[in-house]
Fold:
Amino acid sequence: MLGEKFRFRFAKTGTLRLLSHHDLMRCLERMLRRADLPFKCTAGFHPTPRVVFALSLPLGVVGKDEVVEIEFTRPLDARQTLAALQAQSPAGLTFTRVTVVPLTATATPRRVVYHLPLPADRVPAVAQQCQHLLASDQLWVDRLKPAPKRLNIRPYLRKLAVVPVQVAEQLEPVADPVRPTLELDLWVTSTGTARADELLKLLGVADQIDAGAVIERVKVELRDEVPNPDPADGPPDGPAQTQPLDPAALARLVQPDEEQPAAAVWGLSPAGPVVE
Structure:
């Protein structure tokens, strides 16, 4: 199929998960140039490719089904363009599929799903804490960016649960091919969302990241890819529920970087979050 604007799905895995969002954008520009693809650029003194990611991936998080849209100066064949990009991709960056979208289309995220493997001995406590959070009317977290405030993230929790997940193929057989996994199913809106690192703290499993566990974003659902959404199962409407941040909490958030624990800055991108 021919088109001028393509929506690509891709995976960012392995050590490439440590590549920042800005570096990923620069990498993609080099790939487009090496593939000799006629991409469109923005106007102005510093033109850049007309490339839009649906949602930036936090540093250190594996992305299994990410979304990027790219505009070209003339109609191209979708399959050939996918193959050309894949041929220039570094190890850990895999373009899996492509669709042609109208030039007016925008990849607006509706929902994301994260997975974190859990040790068997942590499952009962985590499952109980998931039920506790879902039963709460409000869940307040402190945010520093884009402006200091307290945010109620409870409306953005669709599902928190421990689920069995099939282990990916290994070089050697594993004793149990199914492992317990924490699943964070979150709504994304233009006014707010919950962050995975915040929920890991609330669930008491942030230490698993320090122990070497890797969190994965396994799904990014777009609004225009859900043609007939269930009215009873959708993201919240209206503005985010916020409160002013008290001075003591603000002082903790703005303390010098060398005094902050690693978990305090885990997952932050150089430009800050795409949504609050």
